[in-house]
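Cross-posting from the modeling subforum.

Setting up a comparison between two proteins and wanted a second pair of eyes on the formatting. Protein 1 (sequence, then structure tokens):
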Amino acid sequence: MARVVNTRRRSLLTLLLGAAVAASGLPAAAGSSINRASDKAAVEGYDVVAYHLVGRPQRGEARFNAEWQGARWWFASEANREQFLADPERFAPQFGGYCAYAMANDSFANGDPLRWRVVDGKLYLNANIFAQGLWARDIPGHVDKGQGFWPRRRAELEARP
């Protein structure tokens, strides 16, 4: 009986998450595939280099900024800004900063900079704690699925006026 209840609870959580993911908008700037959930900057102004170098989210500052892929990126220091500019693909979040679990399900949801994980040197964001938990159950499988959907989804974003 407990197994049936847990399965139903899991199914309900998955359904609720799916509804939340489907209801979320596409906050990328026109012609850009980078998620900008706030008007400030990509990744809500968090320094994407910090996830890799200090292993935690760190707020960036507007004075240390760079333009890349149609979005403004903020950094905690000039050194982090320079590292990003030297190799932005290394530091930028996968799937344009959208939720990795949503992308694995061919959908969009804003990535939360506090729900993150670096896997094989790549930064992934998730929409919330539920999405992060579901994504963590099969990270390699979800990454593969997301990578399969991302080229088409990226093209859709970049084609928007």
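Protein 2 (same layout):
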Amino acid sequence: MILLVLGFVAFMASFVYLTYHFIKKVQNKERKLSKKLFYPLLIGGFIFMLVGTEIYDDSSLAQLDEEIQKNEELTNEISELTDENESLKLEVEEIQSDKEQVEDELESSQNELNALTSESEEHNEETQELEDEIDSLSNEKEDLTTTVEELEEENASLQTEVEDLQITAGSNNTTPTDDSTSSTTNNTSTYYENCTAARDAGAAPVYEGDPGYGTHLDRDRDGVGCE
């Protein structure tokens, strides 16, 4: 490369000297070209340029081969990177597909969870309503049980009063004849605790004056008990 530059400089210097010579020759026609200066510059520059060009060409060829080899290596690397890039693109697509599938499954699971949560809330509400209804029925049952107990106590008390009245009435009545005495004895000796007992004895309905008739059997006081 240096020889090529030196040859080019010498070659150009010979042309510059030649130009300078012609300019001076116009002014002085007797002026002569200096062969010792012109030809060595011209020939030497041309030789240096040829040698430099050959050396440069050899160096350029070697460098060109080296660059071609590097280019091939880079091409191979680019090809490998391209293949790797394609492979990565396929992996990314598969990952994206898996991601979408997982998102769909997650959304489906979330919808199912929301539905189950809603059903659970409805079930809890129904359970609470049933518990409230059970509490209400339990309270009503307690009230009815208390009422039944009170009625049973009242019924027992009334039956006791009826028995006392029947005993008192039997002891206070006089028997002018045998028939009346027999009738009173039958009325006071027969007693039905309730209508079930009267029906079991085959006496229902029990009319007023019949054996076993009592006001505890005739609640509407129409003279007919256990009707």
